[in-house]
Amino acid sequence: MDLSVNQSNPPTPSKEYPVEIVENISLTSSEIANLWASWMESSIKERMVQYFLKTVVDPEIKKVLEYTLSIARKHLQRITEIYIREKHPIPRGFTAEDVNLEAPRLFSDSFIISFLADMARSRLDGYSTALQMSVRSDVRQYFTECVADPAEIYNRSVSVMLSKGIFTRWPQIRVPEKLNFAAKQNFLSSRISKQKPLNSIHVTHIFFNLQRNHLRKALFTGFGQVAKEEQVRQYMQKGKEIAGKHIEIFSTLLLNNNLPVSMAWESGVTDSKIAPFSDLLMLQEVRSMNVILAANYAKAISISGDKQDLAGDFARLMAEILKHTGEGLNLLVNNGWYEEPPQAEEPGAPVNTVH
């Protein structure tokens, strides 16, 4: 696989999205990092959506895919403009070599639109964080637009899913009739009790992560069928098993509290064995999903202080995800596929002036 980068003909800056020219203000480490991460995410989504557009049947879902592709390309263009001004090397990201547009259908239309909704949720989190870490006006402007873009993709995706009856809503619980305040002794003793019922915040995080693991399991199934390298196939199989285990744990927690569980997506994978994506792209997509899931589990731990057994469950499951993430990184590095993010200066190098 050729991982070289062709920077001889960089894109011409667009007139549609003008940005302020900022002189004598260097990009900070957070701005460099978040621009790079945005490039990589937009690059991989551009290639995946290109393939989905070749296999999608439903016209409404196709419209959402077309809009998503236009957003990915807009983001790449905007970052390129900043990179050109800063004389920053253009990342390789993912190229036409990483997608086979002639590959047969691997995922159903229903899975694709669910994947888009989940992707949009993730990017909403990522871009809002990036905006909070940005100071320079052109970078803030870019990430401000980026926050709005996945929100629109999410809204369009959910509207289509609702119209087709394939969106699974969060469980409903009874609206409280009065305010409740915890009694100190009962509250402290119940924190370590597995019999303490789930509250609405617990249910929210459990169900959200249950949904995400159902999607992950289906994605692992499809990727495992088509991966070329045996080690990559084994890695996808392990990811599928981990997702299945987490689905079982979250489903049990909900069922034990007389709450419904989320629908599975295995039926959204065909039996195709022809790879639409390179092993590199699939490994990187799984790596990104793992990082996002670990962050979601960490958030769930932080709100589970009133139910320590639940916090312990999320901590244990997060450790499994992090271990799997590390194994995937080793595969990328060992195959010479891992494109590193911009690095800090070596110890002893001259320190850049901070503006």
Account of the 3D structure:
The protein has 355 residues and is an all-alpha fold. The protein has two domains: 29-164, Ferritin, core subunit, four-helix bundle (Ferritin), CATH 1.20.1260.10; 195-334, Ferritin, CATH 1.20.1260. Helix content is 61%, strand content 0%. It contains nine helices and no strands. It has helices at 29-55, 59-86, 109-132, 137-164, 184-190, 200-226, 230-255, 279-302, 308-334. Helix 2 runs antiparallel to helix 4. The longest helix has 28 residues, at 59-86. The radius of gyration is 22 Å and the shape is globular. The two termini are 41 Å apart.
Contiguous runs where pLDDT drops below 50 for at least 5 residues: 7-14
CATH topology of the largest domain: Ferritin
Number of helices: 9
CATH-defined superfamily of the largest domain: Ferritin, core subunit, four-helix bundle
- Shape label: globular
What would you call the structural class? mainly alpha
How much is the radius of gyration in Å?
A: 22 Å
| Broad CATH class of the largest domain | Mainly Alpha
Helix content: 55-70%
Query: Which percent band covers the strand fraction?
Result: under 5%
Count every beta strand, where a strand is a DSSP E run of 2 or more residues: 0
Number of domains: 2
